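cache lookup: miss for this entity combination. No prior model stored, computing from scratch. Input as submitted by user K.M.:
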Amino acid sequence: MKKNFKRILCVVLCASLLMGFSMSYSGFFETYEEWEGYFEDYKTDGAFEILFTVGADDTQRNISWYSAESEGSKVLLSENEDLADAVTFNADSEQTLEGDYTNRVTVTGLENGKTYYYKCVSGEKESDVRTFSTMEDDNFSAMFVTDIHIQVGEEGDLSKDGFTLNDTIAKATGNADLDLIITAGDNASNGLRSEYQGLSAALGLAEGVPVAMAVGNHDRKGIAYKYFTNQPNQYEEAKFHPYISYDYYFVKGDALFLMFDSNCAVMSEHRAFAQKAIEANPDVKWRVAVFHHELYGGRLPHRESENTLLRTIWSPIIDEFKVDLALLGHSHYYSISDVVFNNKDVTETNGLKEIVDPKGTIFMVSGSINNPRTIKDGEIPPLGTRVGHSYLTEDPIYNILNFTDDSIEIVSYTTKSDVPFESFKITKTTNEGGHPEDGTDWYDPIVRFIADVYGKIAEIAVTNDMLGKKDQLIGK
Ligand SMILES: [Fe+2]
Ligand SMILES: [Fe+2]
């Protein structure tokens, strides 16, 4: 059902003699000036920088926020707008490198088709009352965007970048009732808290739509991703896990989302994570992988040698676990692949609007929200060899993914038009789909082993490097 997106700023100031103050915003901002005013307040009013994220499934939501004090940090959750009969969920609080606290709560026991209200409390301070709704059934719509690249500094404008994200989500909510926002990483250009403030300020306008973020190479330049996120089912068993992130998974409707940190090349850990996630959810129909580094889009010839290695190490996992759809970023160029299995074309999708029981995986890359790439030096950059659909634009792209019993429909827009430039549907007539049982080449285990050794050394080096530059991590 299409819903009109809200263009009216609604600011409610609630004062409390003893509890400080809280502010409530509803809807998106049509003009930069309105957004700028909101964002200036957001940075200074102690809005807690709340990030509302997916829970392990639709009976849960995860919430995280910053606070000066950790004492008494909790979420009050109720079915009543005035929070009558609220249930209390106490937070796990962690002191940040800056000295304040990040607080994490998982609210549980949510029922389908209901509306809930909540607020975050830390010490004497409390947030505004926020709301969210759970899904009626297993059908849902997700917005997929990537490479948001909110950036502070000489080349970026933090506030303008946040406004672009606000505008993108506003346009998406005008074309779908969103139940989920997915990003494939490079959420922030330097991984800094100020950049993530812009992210949480814009995402917070999405009226209780939970976000699931993958981590990009740019996010790992700082440490804000670790502090802002509260991920379900983190794969903490990884012995050489990345310093700031874990693989994690969640179930939405009848879809299992595998959120990989592709910065880490320790493929044995990624494989073990995927196996655990799938064994815990054997009957879920759709398997969607989300990670940052694209594999097949092309357009950036200087990355071909890196991409060749990435394809070799990722394709066995994607094939073994029969992933239906992989959502990727990094190149800043939009593409939808052919059906790929064993790193080879199985079915060309060029000109097709639908593929039924594909015998492999569709890889989708979306463009960047704040740094779109298009024609370069007057020339069209070359496509990858396994690309079925592509689109060049200098405008931000968002994609609506409609999950139903038997299909995932991908509908892609730029923020400049309400008419989609692309529509492509993956249909499965059975839970199994059409993936063959085995397509692994003999050399795959060797390449994986080499990647593991390299990945473990690289993770130790990255960790040591990050620990040695604490101030840069937090942006001071
Ligand atoms: Fe990027
Ligand atoms: Fe990237």
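stored under new cache key. The two ends are 45 Å apart (CA to CA).
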